[in-house]
C-alpha cells in the first residue's frame, strides 16, 4: 500500500474514533442542565428532548459501541435492524430504571458498557471464531448490551433526584431526544465510513480501527473500575 494512502487511511481511523468518542468530559448531566432538571416541577417536553439528544451526542461510550455495530454493515436494512435492537434495549431499561427506581451501581454499569465496546471490536476482528470456534449471535448481543446502555443512561438521571410530577412524560421526552441524538450521530458516522470505504487499503486499516476500538473499551473499563474502587467520578 503506498505510504501516502496508508497515512490517509490511518488519519481516517483516528478521525473516525475521535469523532465517535466526542468530548469525554461532556458525558453525563451536570451544570445548568442538572440544575434545570432538579428544578422541574411538571411536564417539560421540549427541554427534556434536547437534554436526551445532547446526552446521546456527547455519550462517547454509547457512540463507540454503535460504531462497532455498524462498522461492517453494508446494507441499510441491516443498519436499521441493529440500531433498532440497540434502541429498543436501551429504551426499555432507561424507562424501567428511572420510573421503576431500579438502582444499579453506575461504575459497574459503565464498566460493562466499556466491555460492550471491547466485545464488539473483538467480534469484528473475528476473535470468537478464531480463538473459540464459535460465533455469538450479534443481534442478541446488540440487544443485550442495549439493555446495559439503558441502565447507564438511567443512572445519570437517577443521580439528579427527579421530581415525581411529570416524570413519565419527561422521561419519555428524554428517551425520544436520545433517539434523535443517536440518529444524528449515526448519520454522521455512516457518511464518514462510506467515504472511508472508498479508500485503497480500507480492509487493512479497518483492522487497526477495531483494535483501537477494543483498546478504548478496555480503557473505559479501567476508568470505571478505578472509580468503583476509589469512589471518584471518572
Describe it for me?
With 234 residues, the chain is mostly helical. The protein has one domain (3-230). It contains ten helices and no strands. It has helices spanning 3-21, 31-39, 45-57, 60-70, 76-99, 106-124, 127-132, 138-158, 167-197, 202-230. Helix 4 packs across helix 9 (167-197) and helix 6 (106-124) packs antiparallel against helix 10 (202-230). The model is unreliable at 1-6 and 15-26 (pLDDT under 50).
Mean pLDDT: 85
User: Approximately what portion of the residues adopt beta-strand conformation?
Assistant: under 5%
Rg from alpha-carbon coordinates: 18 Å
Structural class: mainly alpha
Portion of residues in helices? over 70%
- Basic shape: globular
Count of discrete domains: 1
Q: Spell out the helices and strands N to C.
A: HHHHHHHHHH
Low-confidence stretches: 1-6, 15-26
How many DSSP helices?
Answer: 10
Instruction: Give the termini distance in whole angstroms.
Output: 40 Å
Amino acid at each position: 500500500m503506498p505510504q501516502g494512502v496508508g497515512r490517509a487511511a490511518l488519519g481516517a481511523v483516528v478521525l473516525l474514533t475521535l469523532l465517535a468518542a466526542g468530548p469525554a468530559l461532556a458525558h453525563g448531566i451536570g451544570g445548568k442542565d442538572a440544575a434545570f432538571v432538579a428544578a422541574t416541577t411538571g411536564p417539560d417536553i421540549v427541554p427534556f428532548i434536547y437534554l436526551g439528544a445532547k446526552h446521546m451526542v456527547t455519550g462517547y461510550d454509547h457512540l463507540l459501541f454503535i460504531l462497532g455495530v455498524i462498522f461492517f454493515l453494508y446494507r441499510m436494512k441491516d443498519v436499521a435492524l441493529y440500531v433498532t435492537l440497540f434502541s429498543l434495549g436501551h429504551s426499555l431499561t432507561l424507562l424501567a430504571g428511572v420510573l421503576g427506581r431500579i438502582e444499579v451501581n453506575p461504575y459497574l454499569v459503565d464498566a460493562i458498557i466499556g466491555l460492550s465496546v471491547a466485545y464488539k471490536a473483538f467480534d469484528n476482528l473475528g476473535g470468537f471464531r478464531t480463538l473459540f470456534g464459535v460465533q455469538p449471535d450479534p443481534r442478541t448481543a446488540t440487544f443485550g448490551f442495549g439493555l446495559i446502555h439503558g441502565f447507564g443512561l438511567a443512572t445519570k438521571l437517577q443521580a439528579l433526584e427527579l421530581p415525581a410530577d411529570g416524570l413519565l412524560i419527561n422521561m419519555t421526552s428524554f428517551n425520544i431526544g436520545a433517539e434523535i441524538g443517536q440518529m444524528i450521530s449515526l448519520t454522521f458516522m455512516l457518511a464518514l465510513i462510506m467515504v472511508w470505504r472508498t479508500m485503497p487499503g480500507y480492509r487493512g486499516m479497518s483492522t487497526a480501527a477495531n483494535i483501537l476500538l477494543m483498546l478504548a473499551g478496555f480503557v473505559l473499563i479501567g476508568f470505571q473500575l478505578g472509580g468503583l474502587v476509589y469512589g471518584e467520578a471518572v
